[in-house]
Amino acid sequence: MRFSLKPVFINTAFIALFLCSAPVSAASFEYLYVEANEGNSSGGHSAIQFGDETYHYQHHDSGLIRLLRQDKPEFHFLYRFLQNRRIHLIHVEVSDETFNLLKEHFKLQFLAQDQQFKQLNDLHKDRVLLRRLLYKLSADDAFLDADFSVVLQLKGAGLFYAEQELDSQKKDENIRNVKGVQSQSSHTIEMLRKKIEQHYGQDYLMHRQKQITTDIKTLTPSRWSAVKSILSKENFPPAINSFADTYADYLTGLIAIKVLAEGQPLRPDAFVVTHDAMTPEEKAVLERLRDQQILSLLKSVNSGRPDWGYALLVNMARFIAVDLSLQLGQWVFIDDFAMDSEWVSADQVAQYAEEMQVQIKDSLNNLIQTRKALLNPDGLTESNYSKLEMSANRYFELLKGRHHKSIRYIGENALPTKSISVPDWIVPELTQQQLKTALKELDNYENKFLQELAEHYRYDLITRNCVTELFRTIDQALLQQNKAGVDPSKQDELLMRESMKRLGGNISASYNFIPFVSFQSVQEQYKVTTSAVLSSYRGQQLEKLYARNNGLMVTLRESNTFTSTLYTYNPDDAFFVFFTDDNLVLRPIFGIFNTAAGIGQSIFGFLSWPFDYGKNLKSGATGVLMSLPELLFFNMRKGSYKYLSYNQFVNDEKSGY
Questions:
Q1: What pLDDT is stored for residue 14 in this prediction?
Q2: Exposure pattern of 197-224 as b/e (b: 16+ CB <10 Å)?
Q3: Which end of the chain is less congested by CB atoms within 10 angstroms, N or C?
Q4: Phi, psi (rounded to 5 degrees) for 588
Q5: Residue 137 forms part of a structural domain
Q6: Structural domain of residue 54, as residue ranges?
Q7: pTM value?
Q8: Using one digit for the tens of pLDDT, what is the confidence trace for 449-486?
């Protein structure tokens, strides 16, 4: 599952939002139990909050369990609104020292694990590159890797070059000259090149190009065999320069120089020309920003940072956008959507037209606010311009849906990342034997690394899940203070004393692997001050309906998916008939109908298998599994909502729903 479900307005709209009605002590943390529903963590979920940061564990496709960190509003929006789950929350009173101890330990664990999985990804990229180089030397199909073009990408290069364009070394002469942007951007690039040559010398770019070419040819693979310790006691892996990343950085630098040398224009899909006119005040701000960008460009072209080429490509693209905005008198922005952005089909846009219209309104309001922020005395910063770029990208992308087009719904980045695959260009001058030796060393190291990761993070439904790992992390934090000189045989006794002193009790991870059971244990064992039940989206909307309408009519109408005004069937949900989360007495009876609906969808899925690749069959089977617990009075399925407004979430919370 992806946890980038944060449209650009999330970053700015929720700073002052107070999610819980009960007062919270500065020295308290929150333990959360998220009710069950179809999808991820279907049996329920647990998390812990420190201020505005929420930590929780999730099972990933790799078979490992990972610690995630999310902003509190993002977490609540995801689970309470999009996944329609109630959250049970309790405040645990602790000293300032204990609060900081726990918060810092969770933060350290998150950063350490994030670095570990980054290294795992680096190993994969190194393997793909080594196999690619071997294939080019030997033409042995055993080394042919279909993942090469997907795994190894040059960030920012796609702003100026199309896929495969660098391999052929030919310019695309058929680029559409939208409003003269291509020809004008070429002139702008030439102007920038002249400024660089004036500042650093006429031959500066040529000398730098030669130096990078030499660096690539003499580049050697990372020495994974030299690494002795894989996971240190703080769980941070050793710092190793990735062979693939270094190679990609060098190539990106060469491409940035190539853009300058050839006056390469922006690609037509790299920018958005809006119809929004600029005000005189905005023009004045952009003129000052353009002057700042020239200074940034001069610095980035001579930077010692590894990714200077990517930074230079982004700076050049943004400079062109700002310059064009000033010339056209209307806003021009670089496309900042990620290459793997989540798309919504034209049919889905039409199906959720009402929700999409709300999203357009929200994104327009956010764009207006970010434009105003740019006019503030301290608003002239790259960071604020980046926010404006993200706001504009979201708004104008959503507008495409009105013209019956597929749209990118999630994926805006603070920096444009439009990429192309690594071209068959300059390569390190390595022999087959060197490459095979490096590949063998990498395999040996990766096998050991995966073993250790599995020992630490292998997921198990009972012994290592989202609940057990929260309590184990708490225990590790409490023991951290007293590690030195502690007899291992007395560690359990020490942990018990520390937990009693700091939290009021001790909770064993082994006996609290079920989310709602762990919640009860926290209530009984820890120093709990207050508790609250935070409504799901449907629960909030039902409260509004009951306040305005006849209760019986609302109950009858909203009890099922056919007549409900609050829920439209979401294809991500298995088909069901009755909502049972708010009807305990009739739950088993409703569960019979829901189970029958799941069986019916399964039968239909069996017949439609050749056409939908088993999607309906899988969904129907899931529906049966989610409905059977209802026969025993236990609710799991609640339906979900894909395209709700984040601003609505904020407003409902402020209103006390």
A1: 37
A2: eeeeeeebbeebbeebeebbeebebbeb
A3: N
A4: -60, -40
A5: no
A6: 26-117+442-534
A7: 0.87
A8: 888 889 889 999 999 999 999 999 999 999 876 665 56
For 109-153, give the secondary structure using H, E and C. HHHHHHHHHHHHHHHHHHHHHHHHHHHHHHCCHHHCCCCHHHHCE
- Of 448, 458, 473, the C-alpha closest to 119 is 448
Q: What is the three-class DSSP state of 506?
A: coil
Angle between helices 280-300 and 308-328 (to 10 degrees): 160
Q: What is the mean pLDDT of residues 356-385?
A: 90
Asked if 50 and 102 count as a contact pair (C-beta separation under 8 A), the reply is yes
SS3 (DSSP) at 339: strand
Q: In this prediction, what percent of the chain has a pLDDT beyond 90?
A: 63
For residue range 234-268, what is the model confidence (pLDDT) as tens digits? 567 777 779 999 999 999 999 999 999 999 999 99
pLDDT on residue 4:
42
CA distance 326 to 290: 10
- Radius of gyration over every alpha carbon of the chain, rounded to an integer in angstroms: 28
| Nearest Cα to Cα of residue 62 among 363, 457, 470 | 457
pLDDT tens-digit readout, 477-502: 998 766 655 667 778 888 899 999 99
| 188-192, long-range: CB < 8 A, 24+ apart | 188/319, 188/320, 188/323, 189/259, 189/260, 189/263, 189/264, 189/265, 189/316, 189/320, 190/263, 192/260, 192/294, 192/297, 192/316, 192/319
Cβ 69 vs Cβ 55: under 8 Å:
yes
Structure tokens at 341: 């952005």
Tell me, yes or no, whether 256 and 315 share the same domain: yes
Q: Which residue has the higher pLDDT, 6 or 444?
A: 444
Residue 578 lies in a domain: yes
Residue 550 has pLDDT above 60, yes or no: yes
In Å, what is the CA distance from 229 to each residue of 64, 110, 233?
A: 21, 20, 10
| Whether residue 86 sits in one domain with residue 72 | yes
Q: Which run of H or of E encompasses 186?
A: helix 181-200
Q: What average pLDDT does range 126-132 have in this prediction? A: 94
